[in-house]
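Handout, page 2. Input:
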Amino acid sequence: MQYLGLDIGGTKISAALFQDDGEQLYYQRYETIKDDYDAFLRHVIDIIETAISQVAEDINIGIGLPGAICPKTDNIKNSNILVINGQPLKQDLEQRLGKTIFLANDADCFALSEALFGAAKGYPSAFGAIIGTGCGGGVVSNKQLVKGPNNIAGEWGHNQLAHLNTDCDFAPKPCYCESTACNELFLSGTGFAARYNAQHGTDLTSQQIMAARNKSESAKTHYNHYIDQLARALSQVINVFDPYAIVLGGGMSNEAGIYDDLPPVLSKYVFGGNCTTPILKAQLGDDSGVKGAAFLCVS
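Output:
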């Protein structure tokens, strides 16, 4: 049996074929068509059919994308690819292709990939946390994605930042989800940079702020406060789920200092005052999601 995964993002679509052991057999990348739903649908079908033509045997097909299937309507919700919101994407693909399609949020695919093949392989459970342009997550236990009736397991990015203090946390504008003080506004690379620039009248990227912290006291202070905020947010995950490992992905996860600086601060906020949860850097890179998507059928 072989496994096809598509990782659909706002700018690109990755498609890859894998064997049972995770070995990659085929890979292609395409631009995302996002101006028209019918054009988007035809493009995805073409991508799948092109990949299927590479193999003689039947394959499992999984898709990861921003957003999720609404349990009430079976349509896509909460996607930044706006033309697919409110559309029955899974049903449309299955009807056109005559095959079962497994579909999940891209953060779930990231978490599954790292649990099956990456940094959290061998751990009984894991929380995969994306801290990039946005802030998402997925929960895996015994090699299975944890799912619930609302199809939002792992969406820690839209919980309110724990122990919020607007005097020192510098609460930003309300989130696009219409809530206030979401973790994503503080912990994403976008939020990290926006708050620093608003405070200091600069126009720096998150990478530039990180790089400056050894020379700039303001950048160092901002980074240290970020570590405290990240610890507060992840402590809530640990208090509720207590995963055997937490895997960080996304642009902010590339800062090596996080893996030394975060663990001792976590212990301040985890119930009981002690935390031994390993904080791990994702191993599978930018295309971790496409591998997780391919193996959704086993989760």
